[in-house]
Amino acid sequence: MDLAYIVGQEHARRVMEVCAAGGHSAIAFSAPGNGGATFRRAYEPLTAGLGCPGSWRAARPCPCGYRGDVVHHCTCEEREIVDYRNQHFAGEPADIVLEIARLPVEKLMRGLAGNANESTAKVRARVDAARAIQEGRGALNGQASGTAVLTDSAFALNDSCRALMTRAVERLGLSMAAYLGILRVSRTIADLAGAEHIEVPHLAEAVQYRAGWESIRA
Fold this sequence. Notes:
The chain has nine helices and three strands; from the N terminus they run αβαβαβαααααα. The protein is mainly α. The protein folds into two domains: 3-120; 138-216, no CATH class. It has a three-stranded parallel β-sheet. Helix 2 (36-46) links the parallel strand 1 (25-30) and strand 2 (55-59).
């Protein structure tokens, strides 16, 4: 499926681009019928022929499947949701977790009437360019060792970024593995932007993706 036909889910489209560019892994929680499987089908042509294409897994957000859905009522208790996510996902090394919400009908109709989404080919061009930058450093960001992340100047943070990361560590209770994962993803975001250094917007986006993962462990 071409990305041009996916309407109104800009956040999820962006995550697919980041995963493909850096060889990262993502878990996409969505209620039945909200497009989780559709995104998985769209991810395959985006990453066709790539070594280490990253991964995109679609999953239900809770045992009944309807947590956060605006149409169907979720019947799960909060403890059931936490236990479900810990049991099925907490041990997986996912870099990014996102929730795909049901698209309002009016937004869907507007998108179908004037669809100007980028095609898979256009997004793939940015993915390839970002990967070329990483290959010049010797490895995809998603595969960079902890030592490389901590010592390579490409992953270095300026004072503003360090302050943001400190707040994130304190607010989310991040482990060292989570810290390294955020740096890997933020470096990929910077590569997609053609930036030499990781800047606050790149890091903030990566922290946002990790916040969803940390909620699984609550």
